[in-house]
Structure formats: structure tokens, C-alpha cells
């Protein structure tokens, strides 16, 4: 009987029903420190430079486009009535959605005690912050006179007029700025022990001074860890409703309007699921190459990628449900305007192919993850994630632009065309995002060193005395299974 | 004239091999009724608070009031500006106490924001950070704490501290590389 054979196997073998190890090859604490700090301390591979230089140039393109926009006027963007929100808000919602996976991994998976999160949470949180930076640019510049953007802050303007706090646009300002601030603090708190590791490893000099400054004199005392862990738990507990609220508030920008195609109650959950979906795809898009380039296979194992692929499958299916439910409600409500929007989207509108790209990329492709070999095959995973990244951009485009193109009055219908400024501003933000991410790889530990060490089997103080028993071991004790 | 450096004893620092060793050593020191001591490790050790007899962090207590401040500020900001100072009537929608639900999103966000600030700064205050220097940093071996070293430091200001007995106890419970950490005054 094979089960009993495993039950009586020597203690160094995995016990029955043991989970796959989160760090493979029984790595030591020191190995993890060396490997992760090595990324920061050694010379970067040539590929890093091959990615960094074009990214900086692309980021420069965004800067140029914004300078051109400010000096010429918002007319350089392709939006006119009725499509007053076009690529700017599409890009804003796209980027802010990317950020959500980071918070999901660091907060929700922390609260639900998913220990596999530790290998990817640092990079995912960094991604969150950089994505929100990219997102924030668009609403700031779409107001046109960007130097007037302080009108969004809750201070009265020169005529003593206050902002309209009943407007979802102002809620958005509060939601996004709170999200950015809290994500940044969460990320920094997590970094402190690892910055101390870097500080203790480098020789005296500028690096030592800077890591020393930012690690705040961390000494890893348990009396410190006690408060630190509580702070981490509290931040996770605060970030969880926050991340759900941010994309809900973003969806209120649309859902509280009277525009057919926007005015739906499914928007908040559907936006949140879409954000997590798109964000996870971006985490995988970034982490699979990072894992290969820096040899992090023992820390980010096949199991991690498998888990994230499953989350993509789940959220992708929720998003698919959202799409179908929008159609069903348009039909079931009997509202002619609502129905017309969806007919235009799928049958005879000017941007029909955007809809089909969205649907195929976001709903059909992730269904491949039902098959284990697809989740195990990194090329398949990368391809699906790329499609999902693109698909989520199409989703925002479909919601925003195709809805506005066919507004209430047929007389004012107009097809939207993006200009070169629209295109390059958006493409350039990828450069900005990549620049920030590559700098992060260069100067900060890409994996949460302390947290990964804490999930090693030898980090359990009770590892040798009274461990919990596997189901079969309990059955052997109870005499249900005979040991040969 | 040669300068004399004055030194002050900070305490004994002892290294332990593993999480299990440091855990059991902590139980011993707790039972020996030491108070001014700490375990330094590269990651938080599960259950060590009980082994050390350290109480649960009081941080949530402060964070509650942080959140309360946030929600109050958000409500006052919106009520005073929208109802009292400058009622903005958009699409004939009134602003009064009954329109408070429209203020909920901002109240929610500021509750989170203020709670998060209280968490971060409260946590720093309770951890005694930021701190540029500390006597323990004079120890050469202490650097290992952030890699794979587990240390226990019993401070000299502990009422039970004794130059000979404390060292003997640390040896008895498995401490290695025991070092008397001294700090320049």
C-alpha cells in the first residue's frame, strides 16, 4: 500500500499531505540573503541596460508629449464632444487597475495567511506604486491647465468656492491619493528590515549611509518585531477595504452618471475584479523574466506561478460574467438606450473590433489556465498575460470611448480617433513604469528577504518538538490504516 | 597626552544557532525574571512573544483614535464647506444633513488615511525608531542578525544583570560568542 509506505518514511522525507515547499531545494537563510542582496550588490546583467536605456528614452517621450500638450493645448489630443473622455481616462483606469494586484497580494493574501505571497509581494507592491504614478499623470494633465490642478485639493479657490464633495470626481481624488500614500507606507514598512540587511552588508560609504538612513536603525529586536508585525497587520487590514474602494470609486465616475452603458450597479465589483485580473497579469509579466534573469527559481517556484495563474483564471471568469451580465441587464431592463449601446458595441458600431479584442483576450484566453500544463508552461503563461494586459486596456476603451461615441443624440455622434500625442503619451508611460521598476531592481531587494526566511521550515520554533500531524498519521494512530 | 575613552557597558550579547535554540533560551530568561533584554532575529519568530513574556502590541488602540480623527475631520470638512459656507447646488440637488451619504466615500478614505498614518508613526514611536546609532552596532558579530544570526542581548540596566552570573546563565542555555558590548561615551 503506497500510502502506508509514505507514512513510515524517514523524517526528512515530506510527510503525507505536506504541501509543496514554498522555497525549493532546502535553501538556508544565508543563501536567500546572498541571492537577493546579490542582485543589488553585483553588476547588473547587460540585459538590464538594454531595457533601461530604451525605457528612459520612452519616459522622455511622455515628458515631451506633456510639454507639447501644455504649450499647445488639450486640442492635440483627439477628444472632442461627445468623446470628452478618451485615452486619458482609459489610461488612468488601466494603470490604476494594474496597481491593484500589488495591494491584493500584500494585503488580502496576508490577511488570509497565504504564505506564498512573500516571494512576490515586494515586487508587486513596487509595481503598484509605479502604476499609480503613471495613472496619476493622466487625470492631472487632462484638466488642460495643469497648473490649476490644485483646484482638486480641498481648499477654496480665489472666489471662495469650495469643491463639490458630492461629485465622484472629487471622491476619486481622495481615493487615489489615499491609495498612493497608504501603498507607499505599506511598501516602506515592509522594506525596513531588508534595508537593514543591505546596510549590514555594505562597506562604509554613500551606500551604507543611505541604506542606514532609510533602515532607520533597525535592530530586529523582538520587541520591535512585535510592533512591526502589528503595524503590518493593521496596514493590511486597512489596505484591504481601501483597494476595493479605490476601483469602486473609479467606477462611480461612470456608474453615477446617466449615460447608458455606464449607469450600472455592477460596475464597482466588476471594476475591482478586472483590476485584480489585469494586475496579476502584469505581476506575472514582470516576475517571470525577473525570475529567469536573476535566477530566483528557488524562491519564486512553479507553485507561485501556478497560484497566480489560478487567480487570473478566477478573476477572468468573474470579468466574463460581468460582461455577460451587462448584456443581460441591457436586455432585461427593456431600456432602449441601454440596449442600443450594447448593439452598437457588438454589432454595428464604429469600434466593434475593440469589443471582440476585449472579450477574446480577457475571457477566452485565461480559460487555458484550466489545464495544468498551460499553468506550468511559462511561455503559455506569458502569452496569456500579455493578452490580458492588452485586453484590460481594451476593456477600459470599450467602456469609455465606444459608449461616448454613440451618445444620446445621433446628430452629435462622432467616431474617436487617437492622435500621435495620445499614442505616444500612453506608450511613454510604459517607459516611465519600466524605468522606475528597473531602478527598483537595481537598488532595492526585489524579494522580501525577511518574510521569505520566516516561511522556511527551520524558522518554525516548534519544528522539531510538536508538529501537527498529517491526516494519514492520525488515521494510523486511530488504527484505521495498517502500517506494514 | 593620550586620550582615554570612557566606555559604558551596554550588556551581554550571545549568539544562538537556530530559531529553536533562541526560543527555548528565551523561555529560560523569561523564567529567570529578566526584564531588560531582547531577541534579535532576521525575521519575526512565531510565538516568541509568549516565550519572552512580551505583551501584545498596543498599537491598535492608538490607530482606533487615528481613524476616529480621520472620519471626524472628513465629516466636518464636507459639512462645513458644503452645507454651511458654500452650498453647491448641482442639478438642483440640495445639500443638508440628509445628503450626508454623499460624503461617505471621502469619510471612508480619510478614516483609512489617518489610521494608516497613526499606524506608521505610532509603530515608529513604539519601536524607538528612527535611531541613527545604537550600542549594539559597535559589536562586529551583531551584523549577522540581519542575515542568519539569532542573538539575545541582556542589558546592563536590567536589575538582575550580573557580570558573572548573567554570562554563566547565557552559557548554560546554549549561548555562543558571548560578548560584553561596550559603548563609547
Overview of the molecule:
Chain B: It holds the Pfam family ActD. Chain B: The chain crosses the membrane at residues 61-86, 106-129. Chain B: This is DUF3341 domain-containing protein. Chain B: Keywords: Membrane, Transmembrane, Transmembrane helix. The complex is a heterodimer of chains A (484) and B (185). With 484 residues, chain A is mainly α. Helix content of chain A is 67%, strand content 0%. In chain A, helix 4 (87-111) runs antiparallel to helix 5, helix 4 packs antiparallel against helix 8 and helix 11 packs across helix 12. The N and C termini of chain A lie close together (8 Å). Chain B has two domains: 7-55 and 131-184, no CATH class; 58-127, no CATH class. Chain B has helices at residues 19-31, 48-52, 59-85, 104-127, 165-172, and strands at residues 7-16, 37-40, 150-155, 176-184. A four-stranded antiparallel beta sheet of chain B has the order 2-3-1-4. The longest helix of chain B is centred in the middle third of the chain and has 27 residues, at 59-85. Chain B starts with 6 loop residues before the first strand and ends with a strand. The chains are: A mainly alpha (484), B alpha+beta (185). At the A-B interface, helix 2, helix 6, helix 8 and helix 16 of A face helix 1, strand 2, helix 2, helix 3 and helix 4 of B.
Work out the helix count of chain A.
17
Quick one: how many beta strands of chain B? 4
The 3D shape of chain A can be described as: globular
- Structural class of the helix and strand makeup of chain B? alpha+beta
Widest beta sheet: strand line-up of chain B? 2-3-1-4
- Using the alpha-carbon principal axes, give the shape of chain B: elongated
Query: Into which percentage range does the β-strand content of chain A fall?
Result: under 5%
Please bin the fraction of helical residues of chain A.
Answer: 55-70%
Q: Major sheet of chain B: size, sense and barrel closure?
A: 4 strands, antiparallel
Give Rg of chain B in angstroms.
26 Å
**Unreliable runs of chain B:** none
Helix-strand string of chain B: EHEHHHEHE
Q: What is the gyration radius of chain A calculated from CA atoms?
A: 25 Å
End-to-end separation of chain A: 8 Å
Low-confidence stretches of chain A: 1-9
Structural class of chain A: mainly alpha
Query: pLDDT average of chain A, as an integer?
Result: 86
The oligomerization state is heterodimer
Transmembrane segments (chain B): 61-86, 106-129
Protein name (chain B): DUF3341 domain-containing protein
Keywords (chain B): Membrane, Transmembrane, Transmembrane helix
InterPro entries (chain B): ActD (IPR021776)
Amino acid at each position: 500500500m503506497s500510502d502506508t509506505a509514505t507514512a513510515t518514511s524517514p523524517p526528512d522525507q515530506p510527510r503525507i499531505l505536506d504541501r509543496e515547499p514554498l522555497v525549493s531545494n532546502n535553501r538556508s537563510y544565508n543563501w536567500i540573503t546572498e541571492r537577493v542582496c546579490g542582485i543589488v550588490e553585483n553588476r547588473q546583467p547587460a540585459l538590464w541596460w538594454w531595457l533601461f536605456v530604451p525605457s528612459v528614452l520612452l519616459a522622455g517621450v511622455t515628458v515631451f508629449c506633456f510639454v507639447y500638450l501644455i504649450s499647445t493645448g488639450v486640442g492635440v489630443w483627439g477628444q472632442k464632444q461627445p468623446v470628452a473622455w478618451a485615452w486619458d481616462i482609459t489610461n488612468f483606469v488601466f494603470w490604476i487597475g494594474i496597481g491593484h494586484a500589488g495591494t491584493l497580494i500584500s494585503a488580502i493574501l496576508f490577511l488570509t495567511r497565504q504564505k506564498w505571497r512573500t516571494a512576490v509581494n515586494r515586487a508587486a507592491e513596487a509595481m503598484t506604486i509605479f502604476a499609480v504614478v503613471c495613472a496619476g499623470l493622466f487625470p492631472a494633465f487632462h484638466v488642460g491647465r495643469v497648473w490649476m490642478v490644485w483646484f482638486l485639493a480641498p481648499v477654496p479657490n480665489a472666489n471662495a468656492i469650495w469643491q463639490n464633495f458630492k461629485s465622484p470626481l472629487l471622491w476619486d481624488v481622495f481615493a487615489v491619493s489615499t491609495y498612493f500614500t497608504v501603498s507607499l507606507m505599506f511598501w516602506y514598512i515592509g522594506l525596513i528590515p531588508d534595508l537593514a540587511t543591505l546596510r549590514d552588508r555594505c562597506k562604509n560609504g554613500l551606500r551604507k549611509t543611505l541604506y542606514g538612513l532609510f533602515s532607520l536603525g533597525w535592530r530586529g529586536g523582538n520587541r520591535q518585531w512585535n510592533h512591526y508585525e502589528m503595524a503590518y497587520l493593521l496596514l493590511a487590514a486597512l489596505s484591504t477595504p481601501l483597494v476595493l474602494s479605490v476601483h469602486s470609486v473609479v467606477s462611480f465616475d461612470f456608474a453615477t452618471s446617466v449615460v447608458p452603458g455606464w449607469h450600472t450597479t455592477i460596475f464597482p465589483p466588476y471594476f475591482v475584479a478586472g483590476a485584480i485580473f489585469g494586475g496579476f497579469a502584469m505581476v506575472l509579466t514582470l516576475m517571470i523574466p525577473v525570475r529567469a534573469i536573476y535566477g530566483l527559481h528557488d524562491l519564486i517556484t512553479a507553485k507561485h506561478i501556478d497560484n497566480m495563474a489560478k487567480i487570473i483564471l478566477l478573476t477572468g471568469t468573474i470579468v466574463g460574467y460581468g460582461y455577460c451580465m451587462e448584456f443581460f441587464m441591457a436586455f432585461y431592463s427593456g431600456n432602449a438606450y441601454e440596449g442600443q449601446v450594447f448593439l452598437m458595441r457588438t454589432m454595428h458600431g464604429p469600434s466593434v473590433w475593440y469589443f471582440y479584442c476585449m472579450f477574446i483576450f480577457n475571457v477566452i484566453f485565461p480559460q487555458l489556465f484550466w489545464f495544468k500544463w498551460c499553468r506550468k508552461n511559462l511561455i503559455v503563461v506569458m502569452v496569456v498575460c500579455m493578452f490580458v494586459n492588452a485586453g484590460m486596456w481594451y476593456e477600459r476603451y470599450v467602456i469609455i470611448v465606444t459608449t461616448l461615441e454613440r451618445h444620446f443624440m445621433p446628430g452629435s455622434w462622432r467616431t474617436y480617433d487617437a492622435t500621435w500625442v495620445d499614442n505616444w503619451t500612453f506608450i511613454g508611460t510604459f517607459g516611465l513604469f519600466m524605468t522606475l521598476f528597473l531602478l527598483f531592481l537595481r537598488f532595492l531587494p526585489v524579494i522580501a528577504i525577511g518574510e521569505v526566511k520566516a516561511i522556511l521550515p527551520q524558522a518554525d520554533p516548534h519544528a522539531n518538538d510538536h508538529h501537527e500531524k498529517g491526516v494519514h498519521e492520525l488515521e494510523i494512530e486511530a488504527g484505521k490504516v495498517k502500517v506494514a | 597626552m593620550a586620550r582615554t575613552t570612557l566606555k559604558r557597558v551596554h550588556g551581554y550579547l550571545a549568539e544562538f544557532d537556530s530559531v529553536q535554540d533562541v526560543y527555548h533560551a528565551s523561555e529560560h530568561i523569561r523564567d529567570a525574571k529578566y526584564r531588560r533584554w531582547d531577541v534579535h532575529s532576521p525575521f519575526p519568530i512565531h510565538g516568541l512573544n509568549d516565550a519572552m513574556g512580551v505583551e501584545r502590541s498596543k498599537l491598535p488602540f492608538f490607530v482606533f483614535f487615528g481613524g476616529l480623527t480621520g472620519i471626524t475631520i472628513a465629516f466636518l470638512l464636507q459639512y462645513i464647506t458644503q452645507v454651511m459656507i458654500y452650498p453647491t447646488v448641482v442639478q438642483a440637488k440640495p445639500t443638508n444633513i440628509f445628503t450626508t451619504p454623499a460624503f461617505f466615500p471621502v469619510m471612508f478614505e480619510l478614516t483609512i488615511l489617518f489610521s494608516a498614518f497613526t499606524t506608521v508613526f505610532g509603530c515608529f514611536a513604539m519601536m524607538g525608531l528612527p535611531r541613527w546609532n545604537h550600542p549594539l552596532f559597535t559589536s562586529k558579530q551583531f551584523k549577522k542578525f540581519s542575515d542568519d544570526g539569532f542573538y539575545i542581548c541582556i542589558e546592563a540596566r536590567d536589575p538582575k544583570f550580573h557580570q558573572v552570573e548573567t554570562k554563566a546563565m547565557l552559557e548554560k542555555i546554549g549561548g555562543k560568542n558571548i560578548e560584553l558590548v561596550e559603548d563609547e561615551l
